[in-house]
């Protein structure tokens, strides 16, 4: 079985609604590739205008976060039903910036992952080690723990549909991309971990992205690795270079 590649942009806290429409219009002719699922994860306020602008294209509009309750007194949060109603099919869960600045933990990540599946939204589940952890030699142990907690009570059918983004924190927004060997090693270890938690078929089906300073120049080699099924892209997702990343195989 060969897994379909998935390239997702993570706009972070960039682009007003007006700018979002302009960016979708600018990028839409550049991100056509029948071999790849293309997702733009955008700020909540941009979802509806970006969705309109992307209508009739291959671009999926996703969210950058979601809360794990259905509705109610959670000022400032976005519910899964709101995302569903807007037509959102993908949501980033547990990005390292959310863990660092907004106190997200492996436990809240797990709650959000379960809630996303309940609403048939595909979670893009982020994991990654700090530079200190890498230097201490505990990268694989750390990532395995993040994955095991994120997937608690997730069943195999759900896990098969999940997307995992391996993003070494030291590589995010730094221009310091992990080497192909480093990225492949951890993505392969994640697949092994999923195989242990579930079975070989689930490990084979789940899609694992690499993220951290991916560019048009680095994407072809990264995405050619046996366990790397695409990328989660920050900075370059706001530029025409994103088209090169999506067309890494052309
Ligand atoms: P970057 O961000 O591509 O700018 O390093 C990746 C991410 O944070 O998802």
Plain-language structure description:
- This protein is an alpha/beta fold and 250 residues long.
- Helix content is 42%, strand content 16%.
- It has an eight-stranded parallel beta sheet with strand order 3-2-1-8-7-6-5-4.
- The chain is globular.
- The site of 2-phosphoglycolic acid has 13 residues, from strand 8.
Structure in a nutshell:
The protein is α/β, with parallel strands linked by helices and about 250 residues long. Helix content is about 40%, strand content about 15%. The site of 2-phosphoglycolic acid (PGA) has 13 residues, from strand 8.
Fill in the keyword field for this structure.
250 residues; alpha/beta; 12 helices; 42% helix; binds 2-phosphoglycolic acid
Q: Write down the secondary-structure element order.
A: EHEHEHEHHEHHHEHHEHEH
List unreliable stretches of 5+ residues.
Answer: none
Oligomer: single chain
Helix content: 40-55%
How many strand units? 8
Portion of residues in beta strands equals 15-25%
Topology summary:
Blueprint: E1 5-10, H1 17-27, E2 36-42, H2 47-54, E3 59-63, H3 80-86, E4 90-93, H4 96-101, H5 106-118, E5 122-127, H6 131-136, H7 139-150, H8 156-161, E6 163-166, H9 180-197, H10 200-205, E7 207-211, H11 219-223, E8 230-233, H12 241-246
Parallel strand pairs: 1-2, 1-8, 2-3, 4-5, 5-6, 6-7, 7-8
Helix pairs in contact: 1-2, 7-9
The structure holds 2-phosphoglycolic acid.
Residues 10, 167, 172-173, 211-214, 232-236 line the site of 2-phosphoglycolic acid (PGA).
